Amino acid sequence: MSSTELPPALATTVTPKASAVRVAAGERLRSVGLPGITLSVRSRPPARAGLPPALYVHGLGGSSQNWSSLMTQLDGLVDNEALDLPGFGDSPPPDDGNYSVTGHARAVIRYLDAASRGPVHLFGNSLGGAVATRVSAVRPDLVRTLTLVSPALPEIRAQRTAWPTALLSVPGVARLFTRLTKDWSAEQRVRGVMALCYGNPNRVTPEAFRDAVEELERRLALPYFWDAMTRSSRGLVDAYTLGGQHGLWRQAERVLAPTLLVYGGRDQLVGYRMAQRAARSFRDSRLLSLPEAGHVAMMEYPDVVATAFRELLADTDELTSSAAVGAGS
Hints:
- There is one protein chain.
- The chain is an alpha/beta fold and 329 residues long.
- The protein has a single domain (13-328), classed as 3-Layer(aba) Sandwich (Rossmann fold).
- The chain has 13 helices and nine strands.
- It has helices spanning 68-73, 101-115, 127-138, 163-167, 173-180, 186-197, 206-220, 225-241, 248-254, 274-281, 297-300, 302-315, 318-328, and strands at 13-16, 28-34, 37-43, 53-57, 79-83, 120-125, 143-149, 259-264, 285-290.
- Helix 2 (101-115) crosses helix 3 and helix 6 (186-197) packs across helix 7 (206-220).
- The longest helix has 17 residues, at 225-241.
- The protein starts with 12 loop residues before the first strand and ends with a helix.
- Mean pLDDT is 86; it is low at 1-12, 166-170 and 324-329.
- Keywords: Hydrolase.
- Residues 55-307 form the AB hydrolase-1 domain.
- Pfam families: Abhydrolase_6.
């Protein structure tokens, strides 16, 4: 058994979630208790019974909310669930304090095993893309298709705009940054993040901006916010240095699931030039290049990403299977 694989969870506790986290119309939020972790899971009631399950994994500093627009686009096609990784969104820190890529992958595997939802259509963005790649490599039985939006896979020469994120992994930097930015408002911080993550920040609606500010204010008040950010950043940097069978590019080569790769031409965190290497590494892949998109194409262009996913299903006969399930329900 791989170090990332875990036996099925012995018990799971599912309770409705009551929190300050925004829940969009048609969404539900619940808390799932598993050995060593508690995960907050966002879902949309399936349009009909029998739809194939999908699971979405967010990036560093993100949350399950990052997938709300895409989940809406895919209503009626899949049974949507998005989780908050341990220490992010509305999920508390893991009991063992493990924020490595492997630790996050274990959380995803633990949830899928306990929920018996696999194989799923697995989605990942940024850090979540690295996590989803590892899950797909070590547990192919859990993954039906894989969709990666700007996956955080190792780059020899990272863009300068990505250096501050990597620097968070250096001991003491997060504390220093917190001290230097103590007078920044949540609005200033959100504008900075959106300028970094969006190809065109003007695509963000006033309502979405307000929601992001409220969410950041809530998260900044959490005692573990910076610890989760710092340790997850360090875990990602550590994953970049792994060689052999545990290296992320080597694991990408082991992925069996049909894979959709989405890269943005204005991505300031993951190099657009990495798209071709990814297309060569994932054995059954197709590439969607969006020249105007940034790091979060599923938020900027959810309709375009949804169309590409439908085409992936059509190419792999998954769309036909899903339609057959609907006709028989």
